[in-house]
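Handoff note, outgoing to incoming analyst
You'll be picking up this chain. Sequence as last confirmed:
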Amino acid sequence: MDYRRLDLNLLVVLDILLEERGVHATARRLNMSQPNVSFALGKLRQFFNDDLLVRIGNAMQPTPMGDRLREPVRRILETVDAELMGLPVFTPLRSERCFSISTSDIGELVFLPTLLEVLKDRAPGATLRCHSMPPQELERAMADGVVDIALGYFPDLQGSSFLCQTLFDHPFSCIVRRDHPTIGDSLSLDQFLGLGHILVSQKGRSQELVETRMQQLGLSRRIQLQSPHFMSVPLLVAGSDLISTVPHAVANILATMAPLKLLPPPFETPLISLQQFWHRRVDGDPAIVWFRTLIAQLFLGRDPSMPTDKATK
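Most recent structure output, in case you need it:
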C-alpha cells in the first residue's frame, strides 16, 4: 500500500465519518458540502480497497476494516495535532529558560537591576546571561540563537533579518570634578572647548553621536585621553581638570565612585536611541515574545537612570 497516495485531509474526513456514521452530519461538522464528503469517502474506499462504511437502514455502519481503522486514525490525527500543529507555549512560572542578552557593561547596570527583580516574581526559575561582542559577531550570534535580545544602542543591527523596538531616548551629560577651579554650576561653550577631554570609545559607539554633532557645528575639542573603558574615567576626572561627555546613565554611575558634578553640554546634543533587537527567526518564539514584552513593559518610555518626572514619556 503506497501511503504517499493518501491525503491527510482524507483521514480527517474518515475520522468524523466513523464517528457520525453519516455523510450529512460529517459535512456539517467539517463545514464541507455533502458531494465533497462523498467524493472523499470514494477516495478512501479506493485507497483501502474496502467500503469502510455501508448503509444499513437509515444509518451507515463501519465494516470490519472501518472498525479497525478508527483508533489508529484517531491516534494519527491526535499526534499530528499535538506534535506538528499544536502551538508551543511558554509558562513563565514553571520555566527554567536562560535568556541571553547582549548589552554593554553600563547597559547591565541600567537594565539588569529592574529585570532581575521582576523575573524573581514572574519567572523565578529563569536566568540571564550577558554577552558583549563586536557587531559582526553579534549578528551571527543572534542568527544562531546564541543571543536572544540585544538591549541598548546597536546602530549596526540593521536589515530585514532584525526587528527592533525603541524603548526610550537618552541624553548626554558632561562630568568634571566637584571642586573644578574654573567650572561652577554651568558650563559655557568656551569653557567646554578650552578644557582637555577624556573620550571613551566603546563597541556601542554612542560617542560618535557627539562627535558628529560637533563636526556639524564646526566645533573642535582637544582629546587629551582616549580609552575604551568607562570605569577609569571617574578617578581620572576627579584627579584632574579634564572633562568627559558621556551618556547620562554613565555619568550618574560614575558620580557614585568619585566627587564629580554633572552638567548639561553647552550645545544641543543628539539623544541616544536605546532599543531592543531580536532576530526575525525567533519573532514567533513564545519565550522570546514573553521576554521582549516584559522588557517593553518595564522600559518602554521609561529611562531608569532618570528621575520619574523627567523620564521620556
